[in-house]
Amino acid sequence: MQREVDLGNRRDTRLLAKELARAARPGMALFLTGDLGAGKTTLTRYICEELSIKPREVTSPTFAVIHEYQGGRLPVAHVDLYRLGEGADIYELGLDEYLERGFFVIIEWAEFMAEMPGCPFIRVGLRLSPEGKRQAKIETSGDVSVDLKQLSLSEETRR
């Protein structure tokens, strides 16, 4: 299922993060796509906060590629593929091992992946409209469900 929501302010982004964190489970991936400045790291920080990970620990892993966060409801592997560019090999990075070990894997710049892992996932495409409004397009796989009732749906389409 695909849905699109408007994120008019930080409260909306926090509500989305809350629902994404609620849907998170071990061995699942969250694929984040969008232009520079679209809010991928901010959304990740809010999700981690909802998972009881201290938000100040959450920083962009652009140069390290992967940061691990422990101590919350779920261990999180936070990945940034920007520096690796098109064709990034998730298996070379060991992301399959993180999934097997029960991590919730958040991948920024997921559009650069050469291949998607075969795991339950949520894909969130973030974009800024020409008017400066932030929007999120959310897609889920299989039995994954994200409750978006608290957010205003601008459009809803079913697969």
Q: What does this molecule look like?
A:
It is a single chain. This protein is an alpha/beta fold and 159 residues long. It has one domain: Rossmann fold, CATH 3.40.50. It is 19% helix and 29% strand. The protein contains three helices and eight strands. It has helices spanning 10-23, 40-50, 95-100; strands spanning 2-7, 29-34, 66-69, 76-80, 104-108, 121-128, 134-140, 153-157. Strands 3-4-5-2-6-7-1-8 form an eight-stranded mixed sheet. β6 (121-128) and β7 (134-140) form a beta hairpin. It is globular. The N and C termini lie close together (5 Å). The model is unreliable at 153-159 (pLDDT under 50).
- Provide the spatial order of strands within the biggest beta sheet: 3-4-5-2-6-7-1-8
CATH topology: Rossmann fold
Distance between the termini: 5 Å
Poorly predicted tracts of residues: 153-159
The CATH architecture assignment turns out to be 3-Layer(aba) Sandwich
Taking the sheet with the most strands, its summary is: 8 strands, mixed
SS strand fraction = 25-35%
What share of the residues lie within helices?
10-25%
The overall average pLDDT, rounded, is 86
Rg over CA atoms: 14 Å
Question: What would you give as the CATH superfamily?
Answer: P-loop containing nucleotide triphosphate hydrolases
The overall number of domains is 1
Count of extended strands: 8
Shape: globular
Count of runs of 4 or more consecutive helical residues: 3
Series of H and E elements: EHEHEEHEEEE
Q: Decide which structural class fits the backbone.
A: alpha/beta
